[in-house]
Amino acid sequence: MLVNDDTIRVTGQVEEILPGPVFRVRLANGFTLFAHLSGRQKSRAGEVTVGIEVPLELSAYDLSRGRIALPPAQPPSPAHD
Prior knowledge:
Strand order of the largest sheet: 1-2-3-5-4
Number of strands: 5
Oligomer: single chain
Largest sheet: 5 strands, mixed, barrel
Radius of gyration: 14 Å
Distance between the termini: 37 Å
Shape: globular
Order of helices and strands: EEEEE
C-alpha cells in the first residue's frame, strides 16, 4: 500500500460504531473524528469494536476524517495433529 507524504499516522480509541461502516474515534488529545475502513478491509469490520485502539491515517487537508489502517490479517496457523 502506498502512503502519501501528506498522510498523518495516529492511534485512537473507537467510541461508537455507526452505519456504513463508519466509526467515531477519539484521539489521545481528546479530538473526535469519523473514520472508515478501506475497501478491502470492510470485510474485517467485525474486528473493530468499541473501546479498542486502532491505527489511523489522516489527510493533512481534512483532519476531521480518517481511515482505519488495520494490520494485515494473519493467516490461520496449520493444525497440529
